[in-house]
Amino acid sequence: MRKIVLYLFFYLFHTTLVAQQTFPYNGVSNNKHIFYAFTNAKIFVDHEIIIENGILLIKEGLIVGIGENLELPKGTVIFDLKGKFIYPSLIDAYTNYGMPEPRLITKGTIPQMESNSKGACGWNQSVKAEIEAHRIFNSDSKAAEEMRKIGFGAVLTFQKDGIVRGSAAFVSLADGRENELIICEKAAAMFSFDKGTSTQDYPSSLMGSVALLRQTYLDADWYKKQTSSSANIPNRTIKNVIEHTELNFSLEGFNNLQKLPQIFETTDKLSALRADKIAAEFNVKYIIKASGNEYQRLEELKLTNCKFIIPLNFPAAYDVEDAYDALNLSLAELKHWEMAPSNPFALEKYSIPFAITTADLKDKKDFWKNIRKAISNGLSEKQALKSLTVTPAEMLNVSDKVGRLKNGFLANFIITSGNLFDETTIIFENWIQGISYKLNEYNSLDIRGDYDLIIDNKDIYKLKIEGEIEKLKGSVLIDTINTPINIAIAGNSVSISFNTTNANYCQNGFSGAIRLSGNINNETLKMIGTAQTPNGDWLDWQAKYKLPYISKTDLLIKIETINYGQVIYPFSAFGKKLEDRDGFNKIVYDFKNRYDAILIKNITVWTNEAEGILKNKDVYITEGRIVRIADEINATKLAFAKIIDGEGKHLTAGIIDEHSHIAISNGVNEATQASSAEVRIEDVINSEDINIYRQLAGGVTTAQLLHGSANPIGGQSAIIKLRWGKAPEEMKFAKADGFIKFALGENVKQSNWGEYYTTRFPQSRMGVEQVYYDYFTRAKEYILKQKSFIALSEKEKAYTIPYRKDLEMEALAEILNNKRFITCHSYVQSEINMLMHVADSMGFKINTFTHILEGYKVADKMKLHGAGASTFSDWWAYKIEVQDAIPYNASLLNQMGIITAINSDDAEMGRRLNQEAAKSIKYGKMSEEDALKLITLNPAKLLHIDSKVGSIKVGKDADLVVWSDNPLSIYAKVEKTIIDGLIYFDKEEDLILRKDIQKERSRIIQKMLSDKKGGALTQKIHNKIKKLDGCESIELDYLKE
Amino acid sequence: MKNILFIILLLITVITSAQNKSILLMNGVAHLGNDSIIQNSAIGIKDGKIILVGDARSITLDKTAFNEIINVFGKHIYPAFIAPNSTLGLSEVDAVRASNDFNEVGTIIPNVRSLIAYNTDSKIIPTVRSNGILLAQITPRGGIISGTSSIMMLDGWNWEDAAYKIDDGIHINWPHIQSHKFSEEGNMYHGYDDTNKEYTRQTNELKKIFAEAKAYNNSEFKEEKNLRFEAMKAVFNGAQSVFIHSNNVKEIIEAVNFTKQYDLKKVVIVGGRDSWMILDLLRENNIAVIVSRVHNLPKNPEDDIDLPFKLPYLLQKAGILFCLNNGGDKEAMGTRNLPFMAGTAAAYGLTKEQALKAITLNTAKILGIDKTTGSIELGKEANIFISTGDALDMKTNNVEIAFLKGISIDLNNTQKILYEKYKIKYGLK
Fold this sequence. Notes:
The structure holds two protein chains of two kinds. By secondary structure, chain A is of the alpha/beta class. Chain B starts with a helix and ends with a helix.
């Protein structure tokens, strides 16, 4: 393709599009009704159909003919494209082209409870359903040019701001008036979990975003029904009554969005799963704007049946020259660097439909480089083309206009020098709506290469011309020194100048530039001309073409190989490889060294049952259950089972942490309102948190992931089993009761939040009580409304405005209906007493008081109420309300017959809960059996899961821990942690994983180093600390933000 | 109930009479703190000193030489546990500003002393000493040079009375080369520069004050007294230690080079999370380490999950002098768990006696008080206690009697009092 044939062509004075009938014009009208034909080209009708030698005929911005033998109308302008390729112009389904920048307002220090949006909008500033991109679209010739240069002809555009972002427009990248550029005014509805520029406090967490979106769906539905119901009221005309109790542009906008394709932006593979969960609930289907790490959870993503829009934001290599700095680079980051370019291929392999976007690229110029990278990592060219044309067009319901080269479609196409995906290919022209945009002239000569430069028929220099075609640079070799040259070409004229000290050209050591002017031969690239020396003498010169130019990026691509490590589950250190069959094709969850049947021999069994501690027992587990406990179970009959020698070891039920904040994504607190009963931890389980593995290594098998303690009525909790490697949904404890976090005292009255947080109700314990009375009074009324609506006949329902389904009230109603249970963060006796009074008078129960450090003072009252306790072993003195906390609390409560547990509330302590339980032996002389129950059977009871876990009993879940020693001893270590009969932590396997991590790190770091040597750009490594959440660190964290 | 009353009565008698009494502890398992154990020991105390350390089965005893003989058969005798790098007595309630006295204004303030702010009547202190911790290095926090620490007994009428070693060293918080970001799911941190741009200025500031202080203290004529320089005097002659708080490997290396440059005699790294990477450097330069809290999480997901647990063992194996501490979040109240951190270190590589040393003799050596305390040895002060069981294991740690300078101290605390009060309320045994 080096030699580019010179073409005569008609320069077209097209600057406006087809027709602007309503606009006046200046000068003489230049409407054209001309046919243009592009002949002799290899035409890609789409990713599947190719016409080897075809003709494309267009008129007035549309394709009017395509084929091999077209009869051209008379008076057709013909472009002979022999040797050239025509493709449909590319489509980007995710841009902000021509959108005004969202106005960023710095958030004040004072809490902002209400929206700042002007007009009859909804209550939350981040729900901007009323925004319509086509109304705020302004074409931007500079941005359009940037996109056109890389081959795009039309894009979806929207304002990237908020959780509901309104509608997006599908627009052309031609220059001109917006009136003609908008191809489809409402092409898609846009969503995300990111509140964007909203300065309103709510939502402050990811789970808050989820809840807000869910509530918006409900509200919009309710809003819609108001209209239809009032229309149904007999003997009433719609006109003369107020249809709505409120007029709400946002909800109206939201309803209008529903008929469009729904696009949801995610920032992580887990967020994609979360979005799909919402979609399923409200019976919609999202197209997922992906983040680029989907290959890390493909199996689950495939099951969503979603379509994806994927970015090519492959991370740059990190600067790993400093071995110490490189320690801050996580295995996940290293592996992602290596595997990110394989993401498109992974989706292709899994037959997941996807479009490719330029979004998230730091520099749009990287687009082709990264596409090629993806291709060299396995992506097929056919799929790449499809993902850039047909797929996005189909996603946006514009496949009758763009994405293919067919009759009646927009004349959006690109003319290239060859295969679009080749490194050397040049895009000459990008035609959009029948307008040509020249990117590179057909006739522009590519003169880059190595030459012999001969001046005055005797002086021979090596001349090198390189750089970009429009911006050439080069050098001449003079006495082993490369001297840079200035070079310019215009048509076939070339001028070159460089500094010289050659005595023949300079007088007495006088130096200066020698200037060469000449002409280039199209075929041979030989240059001939005359030069003027610094002396002023005129000399002949010529340059003979020797070698073609090889770009540096060429070199890079060449050293790249399709060689990367395996995906590990989760995508973190200590994640485990799955059996990988046929590359990405099949992922099967059969972990190596995991057995379906396990026989543990001769072990001391802490049953937590009436039998107490049994010595020298055999325990047989299979299919996830404890099947037999006996003195001797014959191993020969169970040859298939894995045998664990338990000699000298102890077996306990898995530890259950009643109060944990691990494995939660992006915020444990929705701290912005006094009640956040609508938020759910189950929406934000983070299966990739390393603390899951660390706690497994401490014998924890089940944990209740709790909302924080920033508000009197917190969020709904999630109970999970620590199934390391599984996806969030698979971690959930099956069929567990629902729980919710309440909180009292200093945290909810914002005592330690700093001087600005003094306005949210409540600010005193007096107010806390009133919050509960208020909410539960409303909840009772809500239940009445619910009941009375349900009791209506179908006919009556048709014209009765339904009650507004309120997620917050639903949660409280569940409490009142004994379907959701409370775990309440509490410290001092007055508040504990108060809440029990509220509960008794409103007709509900407090299931568990957590922390409950002054529980010992009101143990009798708690007993009467029926509340359990989940406490710290020995924490105190970190704030005023824990001054009277005593380490004897658990013992006293236990002796008073209250179901008592010891919890962690802390990722570090969570892996030493056996030690914390053992402190009750020291403080209060609890028996060892009872002490162990504090972290096993008792929390199981508090969580209503004791029929399945918490003790070693035939028929219960095989959630077990093998200890090296008495589990309550400081010297005891976990050897194996078993959940559902599968070994999730094994001391020996852990040692192997450590070595694997080191090996994998070293391998990728070496690769990065060689990449850097190859000239790749690198990025700095960041020092990261895993944010740890706990009730008692919340206030400070909140203030940090 | 009777037992408790008896113990209280016993304590009262012991307190009032112990001062001039000589006491013989018979038949206990003595953990001397220097790697040795005497299974059936005889330990004699007189005039506040240990005057007898022997095997009860083999030595001949003149029991009449002692005013009181306590049979501690089957129980364990330990040297006083020592908590270095502690804010006990400087902080009462973490969240209440008014109760915190560990952080003064200014970045370089070696002249600020913890000694005089030490509140002997802190309610936290009795809960700590009742677990066997009888001495602590009370340490200021914040800034680049936080101030000067002192070693205090965890019993005393006032700070003068409680002082064990006044102004034992100054504390430097080595500046961070790189600040950190909190990692959250889905974030890959493009473009954000977290380099500490002030690092060079901060370390230069540190170097400057050391150069100036050294010159000042070397000069014979001092035009005007400079309190900051005066406070650093003993650092240059080796009478005081320099405690450099640092965890990051690059920063520790920088700190070590810094101490060499100023020829500092006694240098201790406090924290030393990454110290296992530079064992040779630390050993060659004779630098001791006060190991960061054992009950901690590893920094990076890739780290061995038990790295903080086994760090003491890694230092022990390399022959580096180290001890344990509880600095960090909720540090004052958590000091009482120091013995169990030693227990964990024993579960992860150390022998039990090595683990014990990490909170007794090693600590005494690092703090420069090993001549008088840290182990049960003849001539040392009788800073010892008796636990009914293994004091490194929370299951068995149960301190019955404790002596500071031979005087039996009160092991009651507000928490025990509340416990007793509510047992009575509920009629529990």
